[in-house]
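Good morning,

Attaching, inline, the backbone tokens for the sequence recovery test we're adding to the shared suite. The designed sequence is right after.
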């Protein structure tokens, strides 16, 4: 698992040249415009589908813009969907931490009854729940304990580094590394739907929180085990998934020539100067 669903994941960008552009954050143009309008340096919000890596999304954007220095501002695992901000151009990839350090929101689908080694549906089952499945009231009560500032243990299959290598490198070799818990912030955790054995939970959190760990830990608290079977990111800082362009719209574009530096053609109301973006540290 080379990608990891972590808030504030390190920017994954390619080395290379790009044109210069104004230091703005850009809401993407409407879907119909994306098919026919040249795209230059800026931030393009993509709605990532399940089944592909975040790096693959970057490859598509790099192809349609013709700008080599392109990266994303926060990895989503291949099974996850939703908002993936893609930074196009040197001036944007350099400022990734400042531009995209805002809070995040997710929709989690947690399946109770078993725990996997990856804490999601891609892994092997390592434990079965000893307790019966909870009811909705019990789940809501348990979620309250996860709201606030807390210690969280990263999944063994994650991109968190240990001696220069990601944890998944060790886990794949049968030598999982358990890192000391990290301090994270969960602002809210709300049960949206309970259709046993699956619970849909909306989570708002700060930088660095693992949703797979939250699913695992919630299952352990309830005594029935749990793992993620679906994950959708809906908010990154000031951006919402409703503003994003579906990836297939970009994939329909022909390979683009090298473009001159230009801003995306969007109304002023859709443009946020970088000095207005909020950082959470």
């Amino acid at each position: 698992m080379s990608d990891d669903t972590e808030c504030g994941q390190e920017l994954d960008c390619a080395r290379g040249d790009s044109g210069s552009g104004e230091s703005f954050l850009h809401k993407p143009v409407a879907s119909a415009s994306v098919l026919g309008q040249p795209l230059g340096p800026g931030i393009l919000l993509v709605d990532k589908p399940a089944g592909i890596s975040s790096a693959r999304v970057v490859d598509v954007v790099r192809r349609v813009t013709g700008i080599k220095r392109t990266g994303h501002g926060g990895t989503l695992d291949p099974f996850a969907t939703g908002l993936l901000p893609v930074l196009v151009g040197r001036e944007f990839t350099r400022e990734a931490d400042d531009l995209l350090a805002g809070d995040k929101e997710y929709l989690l689908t947690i399946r109770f009854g078993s725990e996997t080694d990856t804490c999601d549906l891609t892994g092997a089952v390592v434990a079965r729940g000893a307790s019966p499945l909870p009811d909705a009231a019990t789940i809501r009560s348990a979620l309250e304990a996860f709201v606030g500032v807390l210690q969280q243990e990263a999944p063994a299959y994650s991109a968190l580094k240990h001696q220069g290598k990601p944890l998944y490198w060790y886990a794949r070799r049968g030598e999982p590394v358990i890192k000391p818990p990290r301090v994270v912030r969960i602002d809210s955790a709300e049960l949206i739907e309970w259709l046993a054995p699956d619970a849909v939970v909306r989570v708002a959190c700060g930088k660095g929180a693992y949703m797979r760990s939250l699913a695992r830990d919630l299952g352990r608290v309830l005594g029935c085990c749990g793992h993620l079977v679906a994950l959708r990111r809906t908010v990154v800082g000031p951006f919402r998934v409703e503003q994003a362009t579906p990836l297939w719209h970009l994939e329909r574009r022909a390979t683009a020539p090298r473009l001159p530096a230009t801003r995306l053609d969007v109304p002023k109301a859709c443009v946020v100067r970088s000095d207005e973006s909020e950082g959470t540290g």
